[in-house]
C-alpha cells in the first residue's frame, strides 16, 4: 500500500499542500474553519501521519522544549516541571527534562543533547547557565528562558516571582506573633549572591528584620535546599543553648527538615518554635502542623515561560518589562506559625 502524502490530503480536501501544512502546524497563516474541517476530515479518512522528523529537518526545530532543573527530587522542581509540561501541551509541544544535580558538566551534557535534538527552546529552572553552558548556548544560538531565576544581563529573558517581597511577608508575619527575632535557614557558600531565588529569600528576611529594628547578626544559618541536610542542621541548631523562637526557611523542603528535627527533639511547633517556608508545594498542607509558607503561581509562571521560549517577536524586540515577567507572591497562613485554622493567601 502506497504511503499517504500531503499531496493526497490536499487533493481530497480540495485545497493546496500549503493550506494542509497550516492546519497541521496550526499556522503560521490562519485557515478558514470550513477549510480546516475539510483538511482534518481528509487526514482522518486517509490515515495520514505527518513526518515530524522531516519537518524538523526542514524547519530546524521540533515540537520539543528542553528543560533543565537542578534537583528533580525536590517537590518544587517536580511541580514546576509538571506545570511546564502542561503549559507546553497547550501549545502542542512536548518537554524533555534533565536533572543537572547542580553540576556544570551535567548541565552542559543536557544542553548539548537537547540542542542536538533541535528543541524549539530551552527553559533553565532556578539556575542561570554556567560559563561553559553559556558558551554552548551562544554557539548554538539557542532560545533560552530563565525560570525562577532573576537575570543578571539586561537582555536575558526570564520569569520570576517576587522572592524578596514574599520572604518579607513571611518574616513580618512571624515577627507579628511577638517573637524576639526570626532566624533564617538560607543556602550554602555556593549559593550565588545575585539573582538566585534563595539569595533573594535571605534578602527579604534581612529587610524585614532590619525594618523592625532587629539585628540579623548570627541569625542566618547555612543549609542545602533539601529536607535531609536541613534536618541535620536543625538538629544542631534546635538542641543548642541559643535555640531561636522562630525560623524562616528559604524553601519548603528545608522547612520539612526543621519540622522533623523539632518533632524528634520534642519541641512543640508552634508552641515553642514557629516555622515558615517558601514555595507552597502541595506537601506543605499535609505536614503536622500544616506549614505556613509563601505561594508562587507555578502554572502562570510556566505558561509565561513557554510563551516566551516560543515567541520570536517578543524575545527579539520585546521591552525589558516584556522580557522579564515577575509574578506576585502571597503568604499562605497555616498553623506552623502560631495561627489557628489555615487561611487563604495574605497579599
From TrEMBL:
Spans traversing the lipid bilayer: none
Entry superkingdom: Bacteria
Residues in coiled coil: none
Alphabetic keyword roster: DNA-binding, Transcription, Transcription regulation
InterPro entries reported in the protein's UniProt record: HTH_LacI (IPR000843), LacI/GalR-like_sensor (IPR046335), Lambda_DNA-bd_dom_sf (IPR010982), Peripla_BP_I (IPR028082)
Matches recorded under SUPFAM superfamilies: lambda repressor-like DNA-binding domains, Periplasmic binding protein-like I
Positions of the HTH lacI-type domain: 4-59
Gene3D superfamilies: 3.40.50.2300, lambda repressor-like DNA-binding domains
PROSITE patterns, per the entry: HTH_LACI_2
Keyword Transcription: yes
Any one GO MF annotation of this record: DNA-binding transcription factor activity
PANTHER family given in the database record: HTH-TYPE TRANSCRIPTIONAL REGULATOR GALS, LACI-RELATED TRANSCRIPTIONAL REPRESSOR
Name of the protein in question: LacI family DNA-binding transcriptional regulator
Organism: Streptomyces globisporus
Amino acid at each position: 500500500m502506497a504511503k499517504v502524502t500531503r499531496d493526497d490530503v490536499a487533493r481530497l480536501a480540495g485545497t493546496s499542500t500549503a493550506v494542509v501544512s497550516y492546519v497541521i502546524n496550526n499556522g503560521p497563516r490562519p485557515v478558514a474553519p470550513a477549510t480546516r474541517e475539510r483538511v482534518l476530515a481528509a487526514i482522518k479518512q486517509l490515515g495520514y501521519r505527518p513526518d515530524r522528523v522531516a519537518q524538523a529537518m526542514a524547519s530546524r526545530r521540533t515540537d520539543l522544549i528542553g528543560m533543565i532543573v537542578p534537583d528533580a527530587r525536590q517537590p518544587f522542581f517536580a511541580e514546576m516541571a509538571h506545570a511546564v509540561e502542561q503549559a507546553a501541551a497547550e501549545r502542542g509541544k512536548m518537554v524533555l527534562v534533565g536533572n543537572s544535580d547542580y553540576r556544570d558538566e551535567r548541565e552542559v551534557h543536557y544542553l548539548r543533547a537537547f540542542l542536538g535534538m533541535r528543541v524549539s527552546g530551552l527553559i533553565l529552572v532556578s539556575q542561570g547557565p554556567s560559563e561553559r553552558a553559556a558558551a554552548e548556548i551562544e554557539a548554538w544560538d539557542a532560545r533560552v528562558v530563565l525560570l525562577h531565576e532573576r537575570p543578571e544581563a539586561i537582555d536575558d529573558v526570564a520569569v520570576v516571582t517576587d522572592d524578596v517581597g514574599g520572604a518579607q511577608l513571611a518574616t513580618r508575619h512571624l515577627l507579628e506573633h511577638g517573637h524576639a527575632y526570626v532566624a533564617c535557614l538560607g543556602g550554602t557558600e555556593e549559593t550565588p549572591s545575585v539573582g538566585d531565588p534563595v539569595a533573594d529569600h535571605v534578602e527579604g528576611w534581612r529587610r524585614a528584620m532590619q525594618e523592625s529594628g532587629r539585628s540579623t547578626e548570627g541569625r542566618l544559618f547555612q543549609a542545602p535546599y533539601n529536607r535531609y541536610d536541613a534536618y541535620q542542621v536543625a538538629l544542631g541548631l534546635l538542641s543548642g543553648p541559643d535555640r531561636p523562637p522562630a525560623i524562616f526557611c528559604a524553601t519548603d523542603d528545608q522547612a520539612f527538615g526543621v519540622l522533623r528535627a523539632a518533632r524528634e527533639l520534642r519541641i512543640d511547633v508552634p508552641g515553642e518554635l514557629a516555622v515558615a517556608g517558601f514555595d507552597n508545594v502541595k506537601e506543605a498542607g499535609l505536614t503536622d502542623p500544616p506549614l505556613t509558607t509563601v505561594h508562587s503561581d507555578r502554572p502562570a509562571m510556566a505558561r509565561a515561560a513557554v510563551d516566551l521560549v516560543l515567541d520570536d517577536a517578543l524575545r527579539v524586540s520585546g521591552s525589558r518589562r516584556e522580557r522579564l515577567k515577575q509574578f506576585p507572591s502571597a503568604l499562605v497562613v497555616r498553623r506552623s506559625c502560631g495561627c489557628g485554622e489555615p487561611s487563604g493567601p495574605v497579599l
